[in-house]
Structures are given as structure tokens and as C-alpha cells.
Amino acid sequence: MVQFDSELRANNDWVGWERDRRHLYAIRHDGSLYPVKKIVSLASGAPVSNFHGGRYAGHANETVRKLGFEVVPLRVSNPDWSRDELILALDLYLRHRPKTPSAESEAVRELSLTLRRLGHVLFGEFLMDESFRNANGVYMKLMNFRRFDPHFMSAGKKGLPRGAKEEEFVWNEFADDPER
């Protein structure tokens, strides 16, 4: 790690490596992050291509953990939408039916901000990045509801075919009773 800090960290090839999607994990040590496979390569003299990341015995991440170092994910995928979040999204969908607001609309942006604030409560220490319940994600969730909407489907259209099972439960519970 000392060698990485002194020889590589300021090198153009390594500046901002934490944001490179090819790096999924890092060693966290003394307040700094280090690329796991590169550190194992520097320590062993073997090329980076010899190592795999992952969580299984023999992989770089597990080897580094066994040596007592902390390995952390660099990105956390967004958690599934909670029932409460889906209810808020369905409310927006039903209030604007039959014309769903665009991802750029004020209504979608407001719901996105509300969900991001709610996320701090619902998901605690979850490290939210810019994709967490952003306007595009909220808009896509509205499009997921279309697959259940008989008004939309009666026009010969289809909603997005994939989505979470909980969306259907929320639709069935509230779509016919928007006031509720």
C-alpha cells in the first residue's frame, strides 16, 4: 500500500480508479482505498491478471480479508423498492392518468427528491449514489405500472414487461381506490 501511494496513486492510470466500473472492491486502510488485485499483485509480484476478485477461497478479496484487511464494495446496487415507495409512485401514476408525466417533469422530480429523503430513513446507512431513486428511475417505475393498467392496455399498448412482484400487489390493492 505504501508502494501504491508513493508510485501509483498520482499516476494518470490510477487517478480516480475508484469510479472505474471495472473495480468492484477496495481495501480500506488508514482512511484510504486501494485496488485489491493491484495491491495483491504488488505484494506477490504476480501479474494482476492472475487474480480474481470475489468472495470465495483463493480469490483476492478473500485472501486479503484473511490477512486482516477490510474489503469494501465500491458501489452498492440500489435496494428493491419498499411497499411505501411503490404506493407513492402509484399515487403519482394514478393522479396523472392517462398521461404519465415525463422523467423531466416537476412531479417526477419532486417524487424523486421525496424518495431520496425517505431512503435515508428506510435504508439507514445505505450509501446512496446519484442513481438512487433518481427521476429516470421514478419514471421507469411509473412505466412498470402500465402493465397492470386496463385503460392503457385497452388501447392496444403494453407497459414494461419486467418489474417487481410487489408492484402488482400494490396495484391490486390501490388502483381501484385511489383515494385510499
Give your account of this protein's structure.
By secondary structure, the chain is mainly alpha-helical. The chain folds into two domains: 2-73, no CATH class; 83-174, no CATH class. It has eight helices and three strands; from the N terminus they run αββααβααααα. The chain has helices spanning 2-8, 36-44, 60-66, 83-95, 106-122, 135-145, 150-153, 165-174, and strands at residues 25-29, 32-35, 70-73. It has a three-stranded antiparallel beta sheet with strand order 2-1-3. A hairpin with a 2-residue loop joins β1 (25-29) and β2. α4 (83-95) runs antiparallel to α5 (106-122), α4 packs across α8 and α5 (106-122) packs across α6. The longest helix is centred in the middle third of the chain and has 17 residues, at 106-122. The protein is elongated and about 65 Å long. The mean pLDDT is 88.
Name its key features.
single chain; 180 residues; mainly alpha; 2 domains; 43% helix; elongated
Outline the secondary-structure elements.
Layout: H1 2-8, E1 25-29, E2 32-35, H2 36-44, H3 60-66, E3 70-73, H4 83-95, H5 106-122, H6 135-145, H7 150-153, H8 165-174
Antiparallel strand pairs: 1-2, 1-3
Helix pairs in contact: 4-5, 4-6, 4-8, 5-6
